[in-house]
Structure formats: structure tokens, C-alpha cells
Design goal:
Length: about 180
């Protein structure tokens, strides 16, 4: 294994960013709930900060060679929880249709099942490029839903595109793990 590229205290920064993203979830929820009709620049700003920390923590961990078991679990968990919270709250505000809630929940249950099946057997659960792209698009599109008027449809099209990529990534991910399991 390659040696760490930064001193120990700095090596904790990626995990601290993940923890900060987890801490932003209730802040985001309060701001969204206080918003009229799910339209909130403050909530969108907090959501955007969470999206940026998602990109920065992973990039730093890989660049500095300080990837951790905690980060491998907590980073995608923080993303799922933030995005799921946004989808639930925007559904409650009538900004996203019920199908968005259903597909997000089904995708996350599918991923959780795959995780519980493969991790105990020692399989790597690293996120693939398609999954990262889907997460970027979901963060961006949900942020756009938060700041646009409900009559604007283009953020929803971006959301559905990101969600379609997320489902495809989940299928690709679990399919490749299933193939490894058969070997």
C-alpha cells in the first residue's frame, strides 16, 4: 500500500468533510421546511455546499492516499441521506412527484441489500464513475428544483436523468459483484 501523502492531522480532513455533510442534513431540512412551497435559496446553498464537500472529500482522500473504511461507508451514506432527505421534503412540498420518492427508496434499498450481501464476503464496494456522475447530476438538479419556480420543468428532467443514471449505476454495480460472487 502506498504511504500517505500528508501528515496525520490533515489526513483526517476528508472524513471531517463527510461528517460535516452529515451535520448539514438537519440544517438543510429545517431550511427547506421553513421555505414556502419548497423554494429556498438558503436550503439550496446548504445543499450545494454538501454537494461540493462530496466532491472534495473523495478527491482529497484519493489524491492524498488516505482512503479509509469509514470514508468508504460514510461518504455514500451521507450522499444517500442528503439526497433522500431532499427528495422526501420536495415531495412533501409538491415539487417532486411520488414516483421520485418511490424510485429513490427502491434504489437505496437495492443498494443496501447489495452492500449487506457482498461486504461481509470481502468484496470492494467502491463507487463507480457512473454512480459519481449520477450523484453530481442529482445534487445539481435538486439544487435547481429548490431555486426555480414550480412551473419550470427543466430541473425535473435533469433530476430524472440523474436518477436514471443512479439506477443504471446500481444495476451495473450489483451485476458486477454478482458475477464475482459466482466465480
Amino acid at each position: 500500500m502506498a504511504t500517505r501523502a500528508v501528515p496525520h492531522p490533515l489526513a483526517q480532513l476528508p472524513n471531517l468533510l463527510t461528517i460535516a455533510r452529515l451535520a448539514l442534513i438537519p440544517v438543510f431540512a429545517v431550511l427547506t421546511l421553513a421555505a414556502e412551497g419548497g423554494h429556498s435559496w438558503p436550503a439550496a446553498t446548504v445543499f450545494a455546499v454538501a454537494g461540493v464537500t462530496d466532491q472534495v472529500d473523495g478527491w482529497l482522500a484519493r489524491r492524498w492516499r488516505v482512503e479509509s473504511e469509514f470514508g468508504k461507508v460514510a461518504d455514500p451514506l451521507a450522499d444517500r441521506l442528503m439526497i433522500d432527505t431532499a427528495v422526501v421534503l420536495l415531495w412533501l412540498a409538491d415539487r417532486l412527484p411520488w414516483a421520485a420518492l418511490a424510485v429513490i427508496a427502491a434504489r437505496d434499498l437495492f443498494l443496501l441489500g447489495g452492500y449487506r450481501l457482498f461486504v461481509p464476503r470481502g468484496y470492494d464496494v467502491s463507487v463507480n464513475l457512473l454512480g459519481k456522475l449520477a450523484t453530481w447530476i442529482l445534487y445539481a438538479s435538486i439544487g435547481f428544483v429548490l431555486v426555480t419556480h414550480e412551473t419550470d420543468r427543466w430541473p425535473l428532467w435533469a433530476f430524472w436523468g440523474g436518477l436514471g443514471l443512479a439506477v443504471a449505476a446500481a444495476l451495473q454495480y450489483t451485476g458486477s459483484l454478482a458475477l464475482r460472487l459466482r466465480r
